[in-house]
Amino acid sequence: MTSAIQGMTHVRLSAPDLGRMQAFLEDFGMALAHRDEKRLYMRGVGDSPFLHVTELGEPGVVSFGYQLRDPSLLDEVAKLPGAQGIESIDAPGGGKRVRIVDPNGFTLEFMAEQERVPTLQPRVVVRGADGESRVLGAARVVRIAHTAYATPNLADMIDWYQRTLGLLPTDELFVGSRDNVIGRFSRVDLGDELVDHHVIFLLRGARAGMHHVSYQVEGVDDIFFGFDHMTRQSHDHVRGIGRHALGSQIFNYWMSPFEQMHEHWISHEKMNAQSRFNDIQIGEGMSYDTGERPPERFVKQATPIVAWRN
Ligand SMILES: [Fe+2]
Asked: In this predicted structure, what is the pLDDT of residue 301?
């Protein structure tokens, strides 16, 4: 069965200061798409009208946004348990969406018919006649890749997400015995089309919340000069630069001023619907991770869920 979605469109966070969030995200590698008194929309260099929304409010996470594979699926999604009707989107790019609430009371937005925007100029890597070889400045975010979501009721949530989004299991992590699952990476099913290692990582946590949101940058170099730029601006670094052996993912993790973790990410490993599912004893595959061990606050991170506000 092919997935209802082909990937992510955005995350919607909540924060008490949109100006501070904008400054963090500009240093992280995004550009302003639109801002008013209540909402901040940020874009990347790609053709999506926005990749990140912040609503004015207490710090938290409001929703994950997914791109429907085809606009005709809006009708089908609207019939699923917990779904709202089809609504027009009042945001840059317009379009339509259906909202569904998951078993933790967390909202998902299934998006369709958003207008594309012109892409931003690629970075020039040819040295000019009077140039020099120092690339400095913010990384360039291309697209949103995935989220990680901590939850106490892991088995039920894995089942719910797999059914609702039509995902395929990529890798599952267990401790001790095989039934002691602590997390599962799931990917989009687009048949032979190549997709990322995961669009969501569901992991066991003491309380439900977003562990992190991940943004793909233009090239691996972005992760390095982005690190330099974020450090110069005194942003809160959590973990990295490193590489996860699973999915060959090069990463660097940053905390927003409101305790929401954002990942700079790039990977050259791709999957299709035939790629094998593996269950992996933790310590085995993960021990091949490059970089320092994750700090305590990385492991325990869970940005609290904020209810949808109209
Ligand atoms: Fe990630």
From this structure: 96
Residue 132 lies in a domain: no
Q: Distance, CA 72 to ligand 1 centroid (Å)?
A: 30
DSSP annotation of 115 reads P
Distance 69 CA to ligand 1 centre (A): 22
pLDDT of residue 207 exceeding 70, the answer is yes
Give the CATH number, domain containing residue 22: 3.10.180.10
Whether 309 is covered by a domain: the verdict is no
pTM of the model: 0.96
For residue 128, pLDDT beyond 90: no
The two most distant CA atoms of the chain are separated, in Å, by: 62
Assigned domain for 30 exists: yes
Question: Could you tell me the distance, in angstroms and rounded to a whole number, from the CA of residue 271 to the centre of ligand 1?
Answer: 16
Helix (H) or strand (E) holding 199: none
Structural domain total, the chain: 1
Distances (CA, A) of 210 to 31, 126, 134, 147, 183: 23, 39, 36, 7, 14
Q: State residue 164 phi and psi, 5-degree precision.
A: -70, -40
pLDDT at 180: 93
Q: Can you give the residue range of the structural domain that contains 179? A: 5-116+139-304
In a domain, 244, yes or no: yes
Task: Give distance in angstroms: CA of 295 to centre of ligand 1.
Answer: 15
Q: Tokens 């992760």, residue?
A: 223
